[in-house]
Design a protein that fits this description.
- The complex is a heterodimer.
- Chain A is of the alpha+beta class.
- Chain A has one domain: Ubiquitin-like (UB roll) (Roll), CATH 3.10.20.
- In chain A, strands 2-1-5-3-4 form a five-stranded mixed sheet.
- The model of chain A has no long low-confidence stretch (mean pLDDT about 90).
- By secondary structure, chain B is of the alpha+beta class.
- Chain B has a single domain, classed as Alpha-Beta Complex (Aldehyde Oxidoreductase, domain 3), CATH 3.90.1170.
- In chain B, strand 7 and strand 8 form a beta hairpin.
- In chain B, helix 2 packs antiparallel against helix 3.
- The mean pLDDT of chain B is about 95.
- The chains are: A alpha+beta, B alpha+beta.
- The interface between A and B is medium-sized, with 17 and 26 residues.
């Protein structure tokens, strides 16, 4: 029991935009213990198989990242479909 | 030199454009170049586009726009003011969704900077559009 009290739960916020918000049915969610982008991605693919074939990039705390990226408690991760401004 | 409130709800209104032009009436400016982006009634899936519903990652729009402003300010030395407004929410076909104004000492840099800012906005701002079609249905489109 004591050990459970001491164990810190790592939480991140995940944001979905554009068509991805339509597919997931939400704009945002909180997830626990997603240690890196790869783990998060495979969790999302399992939950929403449709997004596997979609084109999108990840941003962590509003900066676009490429490839491997470790996540920390409180990070805001966004899935960004191709931009369409203007 | 730049204004941070980029996103506005609904279409760009003429009184806003007129107010911004008034703000730039000062002696050291010799040229203003303005770009207005407009919602076009394209035909998608055989149906006419009625309106575009824009959505954005607000906070990231601000951080990306700051980077664009920094880049432009470093590249052009004759600029006095830059204004950018982009719509979020619904904008009907024929209405305006993007406004960019560059005021400079002379025309050359005003022309060039406006074009570059519009290109960078299309490439880098986290904004999405859902094109609502006549008779129902919608299409998510992306910039080429």
């Amino acid at each position: 029991m004591l050990q459970n009290f001491n164990r810190k739960i790592m939480k991140i916020k995940v944001l979905f935009f554009g068509m991805l918000s339509e597919i997931t049915g939400t704009g945002s969610m909180e997830l626990e213990n997603m240690e890196n982008i790869r783990i998060l991605q495979s969790h999302l693919w399992k939950t929403y198989p449709e997004i596997k074939d979609m084109d999108y990039r990840f941003a962590v705390n509003k900066e676009i990242i490429n490839g491997k990226h470790e996540l920390k408690d409180g990070d805001e991760v966004a899935l960004l479909p191709p931009f369409a401004g203007g | 030199m730049t204004n941070k409130d980029i996103l506005i709800e609904g279409p760009i209104q003429q009184d806003l454009v007129s107010k911004i032009i008034s703000d730039t009436m000062q002696g050291n400016i010799g040229a203003q170049s303005i770009f207005l982006g407009q919602v076009r009634n394209d035909v998608l899936k055989g149906k006419k586009v009625l309106e575009i519903d824009y959505s954005a990652y607000d906070e990231m729009v601000n951080t990306e726009m700051e980077k664009i402003f920094e880049h432009i300010k470093n590249k052009y030395d004759d600029l006095q003011k830059i204004y950018v407004r982009h719509s979020v929410g619904v904008v009907k076909a024929g209405e305006h969704s993007l406004f960019v104004l560059v005021a400079a000492g002379h025309r050359r840099q005003a022309f060039k900077a406006v074009e570059e800012i519009v290109d960078l906005i299309k490439e880098r701002l986290p904004v999405w559009k859902k094109e609502n079609l006549e008779g129902g249905g919608h299409v998510w489109t992306e910039n080429p």
